[in-house]
Amino acid sequence: MNTLDNYISEYIEYCKYRKRLDFKTLKAYKIDLKQYTDYCSDLSDCFGKDVVDTFITSLHKNYKAKTVKRKIASLKAFFHYMEYKEILTENPFTKLDIRFREAKLLPKTIPLHSMQSFLSTLYVQKEHAESEYQQRCCIRDIAVIELLFATGMRISELCSLKPSDIDLESNNILIYGKGAKERIIQIGNQEVIAALNLYKETFAKDMDSCGYFFVNRLQHKLSDQSVRCMINHYAELAGISQHITPHMFRHSFATLLLEQDVDIRYIQRMLGHSSISTTEIYTHVSSSKQKDILVHKNPRNQIDINKG
Questions:
Q1: Residues with a known catalytic role
Q2: Which residues pair with 167 in a beta bridge?
Q3: pLDDT attached to residue 89
Q4: Is residue 307 very low, low, confident or very high in pLDDT (cuts 50, 70, 90)?
């Protein structure tokens, strides 16, 4: 006899092998659908509109809008699969109004002066390293931060880079983004190229042993959490009070490009966004560019009133 858990297990297998979804998406689906099975243990009720409707209401009471949106999407995708497999004759979502207003949170960026202090601190630490181990750590940390800021790549993309993904002859990086989508980013700054070359020379054996470009002290793949700790460490040394996350380097990269009048569709491709609407949020962040326009190109500037 099939149970809801069995159907979900079959669906996860389908997502993994047929849709080839990534590990993080599968993990989120498992968490969200397990929550629904805990809420609705009776198989005869779990496909009904009323039960799904009350479940969604309970989500709104307990979670922020962004989390609710993800959990609803997970459940909706599962019911679509059940309909596709003809297990369900009627999808409860066809009669549900699941639209709601979601507050748009503007991405947080790192001010340019803070970024300058951050990078300067990294290079000073490298120059004053008291041991070979400290020197190696600084060489790696500089390469990590320079690459994050110079390309706007996600932290997960950076940690997943293989040695073959970085071509320092043509200065191209092959990035595997969300949904198994690939994109190529060019490194256009000589200091970043120099930092990556030095890292590659210093860690060549470690990379061969590990199989990934960025490695930790145990010659294993560098983790997201290690990079977060690294950023916190150097921010504290630089005297930066703002809490800085890896994703803020990505936000800063996009915002600074916009402020230099780079076309938003180029930025979309660099960031690996599927939809231009995702990239457009940065147009609301570029306040310094807006101020410059309103001060120097304000239509009011063209009117000179003679008050005499």
A1: 154, 178, 247, 250, 273, 282
A2: 172
A3: 86
A4: low
User: Is the domain 4-95 a CATH 1.10.150.130 member?
Assistant: yes
Check residue 294 and report its DSSP letter. H
CATH 1.10.443.10 fits 112-286, yes or no: yes
Give how far the C-alpha of residue 92 lies from the chain's centroid of Cα atoms, to the nearest Å: 32
| pTM: predicted TM-score of the whole model, two decimal places | 0.73
| Cβ(56)–Cβ(72) below 8 Å | yes
174 in helix, strand or coil? strand
Burial string for 232-265 (b: 16+ CB within 10 Å, else e) reads eebbeebebeeebebebbbbbbbbbbbbeeeeee
- What is the residue extent of each domain of the chain? 4-95, 112-286
CA 202, CA 196: separation in Å to the nearest integer? 10
- The mean per-residue pLDDT over the stretch 23-41 comes to 90
Q: What is d(CA 301, CA 293) in angstroms, rounded to the nearest whole number?
A: 11
Provide the phi-psi class of 272: left if phi over 0, else alpha when psi is between -120 and 50, else beta.
Answer: left
DSSP 26-81: HHHHHHHHHHHHHH---TTTTTSHHHHHHHHHHHHHHS-HHHHHHHHHHHHHHHHH
